[in-house]
Amino acid sequence: MVSDDAALPMVTDLPNHGLPPDPPAHSPPVEPAAENVEAPESADQPPLADPRQQVQLTSVAGVVQLVLPPEADPETGLITWPEQLKQLKLRLETGERFWQDDTPVHLMAQERLLDARQLQALDEALSAAKLRLKRVFTSRRPTALAAVTAGYSVDQQTVVQSLVQSPADPGKALAEPLYLQTTVRSGVEVRHPGTLVIMGDANPGSSLVAEGDILVWGRLRGTAHAGAAGNRDRRIMALHMQPTQLRIADLVARPPDAVPEPYRPEVAYVGEGMIRIARAQDVAQQTLNQTLSRGAQPLETF
Amino acid sequence: MTRIIVMTSGKGGVGKTTCTANLGMALAQRNKKVAVIDADFGLRNLDLLLGLENRIVYTALDVLAGDCTVEKALVKDKRQPNLAMLAAAQNRNKEAITPEQMKTLVAGLVGQYDFVLIDCPAGIELGFQNAIAPANEAIVVTTPEISAVRDADRVVGLLEANEVKYPKLLINRLKPRMVQDDQMMSVRDVLDILAVPLLGVIPDDERVIVSANRGEPLVLDQQLSLAGTAFTNVARRLVGEEVPLLDLTASHNDLFSRLRRFFRN
């Protein structure tokens, strides 16, 4: 469950950039708000789809799986079909090409209704990236009919099956890292239920949200939220850390107004209940020290 | 091959219409056949800047309604016969047409013109969607202000998502003196955020206001002003010439201003 803005504690200033990892804390530590982060809805409600769910492309056993978020309707606030199609095209164009030409695609439409026109649009978008839509998994008869008419293999599953694999499974592992080679521009939000790697800049007004770590090989100038599902061990790393706001799990921080020049690669992490920023090399040093203090062999012995 | 270019910015008041009028005229002066289209339905201005307001008989809506042909609705410029303008309807709003209709409208001009420039309305709603639908190129106009640059960034993202690839940047109303004194974003600062190829930089010039009031684009002046030269250069770059950027600081870099800066620091 992605923590709500309302459940987040007050925004606090970060300690200055470039401080060693454990400085004397001048600013008051952020109060942990873990108990506030709990989902407000009662347990007997059916698990709702995350309204901000995005299109996903994953590789499963030599096949590319395309998972579409459920249909948009005004109540759930899900993104609309044209936006989903745009999102898919963005992923196909800027993402890592983990497939070879003519790799088959399985479309996981589940309970989503798709008409022939939408299937056609999906096919065109996938073909442009040298992917072949082969099989459609659906639990809806109209979608199955449209897919059969268009000449795809169809797996019509029962609704019970799709209820079993509900997305709110508590113990699920993170998704594979999402790798995007693009400039994330103002107004664009990238969400991923795993680690997010951006090769390029994240501009002011953009938003990166990941359940895992966030790595920006470029300038981070927008908002970044790592460990969005509540994991405070997640980190945000950037070559040039100049964010509008940083969030890790349930904590929020904004960078100091006085920014250091020149910029160095930096890492934001949670230490003593608040978000801190340290130079990348200091963090590496600290990790080494921790490993050593846990009884590991000193480097010299290798 | 007709180049269909949309002039857009996201933010209002950065000079989209001024740039469209001047660029259209400058391209026409270079012997290109140019059609400029006002896509700002309900708030049309392009006709004013070109001084063609009183010659409009038919608007784009009349063409779409089938009341006249595109050719008939185009207002030919008397000063520069290579330039023609298609006016937007003043009495309707942006919901009056759809992106599909806009494509049909522009399709009627393809082949007969070298350039079709579309003046996009501010915002990113239907008016914007209409204006970018037929385009295959885009010029993003921005001023060196943080809000304009932020909106331009958003627009570049939207253009890419709508398959208008490789937009070019036109920085308008730069004040070289303020940039020198570190009070305004420099060209470099803007490019740093937007990361889009630069097409040109237009200096801030009071004569732009005078030319707008008179309905005569700056590039028509006998003695070109700095802004007029900058527009001409942008047109030359658009047709593929290599033209270096103007040195906008030249007039501000005299002994007096250097002394002033020296003492201020």
Quick overview:
The complex is a heterodimer of chains A (302) and B (265). With 302 residues, chain A is an alpha/beta fold. Chain A folds into 2 domains: 56-164, 2-Layer Sandwich (Alpha-Beta Plaits), CATH 3.30.70; 173-293, 3 Solenoid (Pectate Lyase C-like), CATH 2.160.20.70.
Molecular structure report:
Helix content of chain A is 20%, strand content 29%. By secondary structure, chain A is of the alpha/beta class. Chain A has two domains: 56-164, ACT domain (Alpha-Beta Plaits, 2-Layer Sandwich), CATH 3.30.70.260; 173-293, Pectate Lyase C-like (3 Solenoid). In chain A, the strands form three sheets. Chain A has a six-stranded mixed β-sheet, with no helix packed on it. In chain A, strands 7-9-11-13-16-17 form a six-stranded mixed β-sheet. The termini of chain A are far apart. Helix content of chain B is 39%, strand content 15%. Chain B has an eight-stranded mixed β-sheet with strand order 3-4-2-5-1-6-7-8, sandwiched between helices. In chain B, helix 5 (99-107) packs parallel to helix 6. The longest helix of chain B has 16 residues, at 146-161. Chain B is globular, with a radius of gyration of 18 Å. The A-B interface holds A 86, 89-90, 183, 185-188, 201, 203-205, 221 and B 150-151, 153-154, 156-158, 161-162, 193, 195.
